Amino acid sequence: MDLARYRNIAVLTGAGISHSAGLPTYRGTGGLWTDPRLAALSDVNALVADRAAVCDLFWSFRRAIEAVQPTPAHAALAAFEQRLPRGTRFQIITQNIDGLHQRAGSNNVCELHGSLRRWRCDRCTTELEPADGEAPVHCDQRMRPAVVLFGEAIPVDAERTVKQALRDCDLFVAIAPRARSSRPRASCAGPSSAARGACCSTSSLRRSTRAVHRVPRRPRRRARAAVVRGARRGVASRQSGAMSEYRVRAAVWPRRS
Length: 257
Fold this sequence. Notes:
Number of strands: 12
Structural class: alpha/beta
CATH topology of the largest domain: Rossmann fold
Strand order of the largest sheet: 3-2-1-9-12-10-11
Number of helices: 9
Distance between the termini: 21 Å
CATH class of the largest domain: Alpha Beta
Largest sheet: 7 strands, mixed
Strand content: 15-25%
Number of domains: 2
Radius of gyration: 18 Å
Shape: globular
Helix content: 25-40%
């Protein structure tokens, strides 16, 4: 695939890209949400019922993230962005809340589910990046993580960024732990819908082999809607896997004249 000819590139990532850094996935084997207690504390209603437990849980997640480093996959995406020709638009859309894309050097990152780097006061809406140490307090109340909990909507600005990126892109890449030789699925956000109406290429970050698939056409507007719907339902890539198993799934939409 000649990547130099694309001028608007959108890349979608999920929990699998951070697994080899030592972070657990969510719904895969040993995932965080396989523990009913952790899943319950990640619901917006738990902020009312047991705010301290919720804040302590996510503060522990934040500390765990600070202890790890970006993976080679994060670094590869950052390096790819830096080497793009002038004028090329490159947008990473991630469901992750770990901030590893930015730490690896990526610039244009849309955090669909927020970030554990930022914490918010529910009383005055102040949002900040707290220092290490104790969990932050503001307006005499424990601050909450600026992430999307179960039962909450995706932030309007993030949803707008996603829709614009998917509307304008001429190359769409979804990164998942594994590639299959069958029809590719954009695992992080209802990919089978996102890929319809396009020529799809499945390739590896480390290997040169690539499988190309042609699937029935589908209007871009419906494909964008499917991606956002999938993200809202939390249909993310939760499989674990070693770095050598990562694959890039690319859905190439025809250019508009």
